[in-house]
Write a structure and sequence with these properties.
Layout (H helix, E strand, L loop, with lengths): L1 H5 L4 H16 L6 H26 L8 H18 L3 H25 L5 H19 L10 E2 L17 H23 L2 H11 L1 H6 L4 H27 L1 E2 L1 H4 L2 H14 L6 H22 L7 H16 L4 H9 L7
Antiparallel strand pairs: 1-2
Length: 334
């Protein structure tokens, strides 16, 4: 099984992955809590980028409302924990199906009635906005006033209830990111991955070849939604508070997809590299401005826009394909 999951990853890619993983595993022993938190955010965006990449990078279905699945996963697990004391490890068995059902409903409406391209993207935004407005009035989970998870000081990490220090959350999101990487590689090299590639490149040709386009597009949406909901569970228990405006807003969806776009849509390493570049450079810029006592509202958004413009103009395939060529790594875009 492990051999199948790493099949197709170039040797240099495996070595690079090994060095990166070893560095990340050792990092908490050499950095302070602030840098550890930055790494947690980077890995969070790397993970969500991989999940979104299944839908867009592999199957060619553009979702601009992916925050919907983060929010559904977050609120489901958090509500079960706060109201009934259910561990998030059990709560994920409710959070994942809820997100998958939502994804299946959106996918069914879109694909059954031939809603594609930019109209499909608008449909995903619409459902995320419906959720934002709906949860604003859903008082069982706090409504617009916010939903707060109990926070206590622990001398030891409580992994079962995800209550503890940042280092516990760091290794948890690192494990999720590594798992997502191998799942994506496995899917990419499998039969379903080649079907997705065919659909993305030419849907009509894929249908003519006998591929059940509706079914495999549904697979992509449902799987992407389920994986993204796990990020929502992590988000809820790491930040300990949820606001509909914070979780479901379209700005959150755009943040989720920037890493794979910058790094390289349809690649395995692209979402990871994109997350490191965007978050790392953004935090560096913020630290420099703070050191000079400068506070520019919206500076992060402007920086993201500049990065996106730079990549679109100079590296339309993303940063990773360019880096891969320089390193002699022949990872193929899906």
């Amino acid at each position: 099984m492990i051999a199948r999951m790493i099949e197709g990853v170039p040797l240099r890619g495996l070595l690079l992955s090994g060095v990166l993983l070893a560095t990340l595993l050792a990092a908490p022993f050499f950095i302070n809590d602030y840098l550890l938190t930055i790494l947690i955010i980077i890995l969070y965006f790397a993970y969500t980028g991989q999940a979104w990449n299944i839908m867009m990078g592999f199957a060619g279905q553009l979702s601009l409302g992916h925050a919907l699945y983060v929010g559904l996963g977050a609120y489901t697990a958090a509500a079960l924990y706060v109201h009934y004391g259910v561990s998030p490890w059990i709560g994920i068995f409710a959070a994942i199906p809820v997100a998958m059902i939502a994804g299946a409903f959106i996918g069914f409406l879109a694909f059954r009635f031939s809603v594609a391209g930019v109209y499909f993207a608008i449909l995903t935004i619409a459902f995320a906005e419906f959720a934002r407005v709906g949860f604003d009035h859903f008082t069982w989970v706090g409504g617009s006033s916010g939903f707060f998870l109990p926070v206590a000081n622990y001398t030891e990490n409580d992994l079962w209830n995800l209550r503890g220090k940042p280092i516990m959350f760091y290794y948890l999101i690192l494990a999720l990111t590594v798992l997502a990487f191998f799942i994506c590689n496995f899917l990419l090299r499998s039969r379903i991955g080649y079907f997705w590639l065919a659909i993305r490149e030419d849907e009509e040709a894929a249908r003519a070849l006998g591929i059940d386009v509706f079914r495999y597009k549904m697979y992509a949406v449902v799987l992407s939604a389920g994986l993204t909901s796990l990020a929502g569970v992590f988000f809820a228990f790491f930040y300990n508070n949820l606001f509909p405006e914070q979780v479901f807003h379209i700005a959150r969806s755009i943040e989720l997809i920037l890493a794979p776009i910058i790094g390289g849509v349809g690649t395995l390493f692209g979402p990871i590299l994109g997350a490191f570049l965007l978050t790392g450079l953004s935090e560096t810029m913020h630290a420099i401005l703070h050191a000079f006592g400068v506070d520019i509202p919206g500076a992060k958004q402007v920086f993201y826009g500049i990065c996106l413009l730079f990549v679109v103009l100079l590296m339309p395939d993303g940063v990773w394909p360019w880096v891969a060529r320089k390193l002699g790594i022949t990872e193929k875009r899906s």
